[in-house]
Amino acid sequence: MEELDFANASEKARKYINKWIEEKTEGKIVELLSNDSINPQTSLVLVNAIYFKGKWEKKFDRHRTREEMFKISKEKQKPVQMMFLKSKFRMTHIQDVSTQVLVLPYVGGQMDMVILLPDENTDLKMLEQGLTPEKLTDWLKPERMERTEVGVYLPRFKLEENLDIENILKKLGMSDAFDMFKADFSGISSGKDLFLSNVLHKAFVEVKEEGTEAAAATAVGFVGCCLCPYFVADHPFLFLIRDNSSKTILFWGKVVSP
Q1: Which of 6, 35, 125, 193 has a CA that sits 20 to 30 A from residue 220's CA?
Q2: 68 and 102: one domain?
Q3: Looking at the domain assignment, is residue 79 inside a domain?
Q4: Serpin domain: from which residue to which, for each copy (predicted)?
């Protein structure tokens, strides 16, 4: 925690925080705090910026990347840069939600990206509605996975998301922290007028051939190049990045229009 002068130098404080975040995320997250986010009445700002950079254990061949159509919906498509890799990966098919699950490991084996791809005729909402922490844990059990050679088609994508998580934290029971009369931060400050003004979060994730930077099989429309199953992410899917030792999910996202 750092102490800044919001009352007399709010703009200077805003720029200082933004610069610190930009440096810590290697330039991937900039201007987290907008012009109107800090003012002389600001008391305490909680800022969270998470950045992850991982290289694939097995890289996609950049020379195999080509333009293909991504089906945003039944009526709408868009051209994307579709990567390709043929190798052995852990995967399974969850019948209950008609979804393929593929695990793409990062170098070192400590981190994985898990992709949950609904079958082509299954709406992503069906997967989202049927997803619970308990089910996800069950789906990712090693005994449910089969290590097999598979041809993987995955679009390059980049996602950025800004979140003001004040309402989320209040629902989780942190409402007093935002109340100037009830907040108790005596553990970090001797002042009695300290309370949370803002809680801001920004995440950045970029997936490409070399790896990721984070701040039923179908081959329709693709020419087969190997006698193996295909995992074709040419329509909306969910993904997560997890730490294998703690089973902690570090990033969770949805790709609808890469």
Answers
A1: 125
A2: yes
A3: yes
A4: 1-258
**Position 1 in a domain:** no
φ and ψ at residue 218, rounded to 5 degrees: -140, 150
> What total number of domains does the chain contain?
2
Task: Please check whether residue 199 lies inside any domain of the structure.
Answer: yes
Distance CA 127, CA 98 (A): 8
Predicted confidence (pLDDT) per residue in 204-231, tens digit: 787 888 877 666 222 233 344 445 688 9
Chain centroid to Cα 94, Å, comes to 22
Mark whether 186 and 226 lie in a shared domain. Answer: no
Cβ atoms of 231 and 102 closer than 8 Å: yes
**Could you give the CA distance from residue 209 to residue 217 in angstroms, rounded to a whole number?**
21
Distances (CA, A) of 199 to 2, 29, 45, 167, 177: 15, 16, 6, 9, 11
What is the DSSP secondary structure assignment for residue 142, as one 8-state letter? G
37-63 residue pLDDT tens: 777 877 777 776 667 778 899 989 888
